[in-house]
Amino acid sequence: MNQIKVIEAKSFKDRFFGLMGKNNIDYCLLFNHCNSIHTFFMKEAIDVVMTDDNDKIIYIKKNLKRNRIILPKRGATKTYEFPNNYIKKQKKGDILKLK
């Protein structure tokens, strides 16, 4: 996996707005303590990876289009939103390594 800058959404504002309205996304947004998302008001499709506390992949959705919802996934505690087509070979059960 190519290196990518990971930005953690910590504040209420950052978590609320996330990638809404963004174009040409070139970083990953991390949401801790998060097991569901939506893509309302987004301009681009994204790749989504949800992991447990040990970064074991629980769920992957590539090319998630605008105006979609991912309902809560059991065991997921972190959600990573990547630029579209960033996730290539990773699969459920793998350990997510971003370094």
Name the assembly state. Answer: single chain
> What is the helix/strand order?
EHEEEEEE
* Euclidean distance between termini CA atoms: 8 Å
Strand order of the largest sheet: 1-2-7-4-5
How much of the sequence lies in strands comes to 25-35%
**Would you tell me the structural class of the helices and strands?**
mainly beta
Rounded average pLDDT? 94
Tally of separate helices: 1
Task: Outline the low-pLDDT stretches.
Answer: none
Largest sheet: 5 strands, mixed
General shape: globular
* Structural domain count: 1
> Could you estimate the helical fraction of the residues in percent?
under 10%
The beta-strand count equals 7
The radius of gyration over CA amounts to 12 Å
Please give a structural write-up:
The protein has 99 residues and is mainly beta. It has one domain (6-83). The protein is 6% helix and 32% strand. It has one helix at 12-17, and strands spanning 6-8, 28-32, 37-38, 46-51, 57-64, 69-70, 78-83.
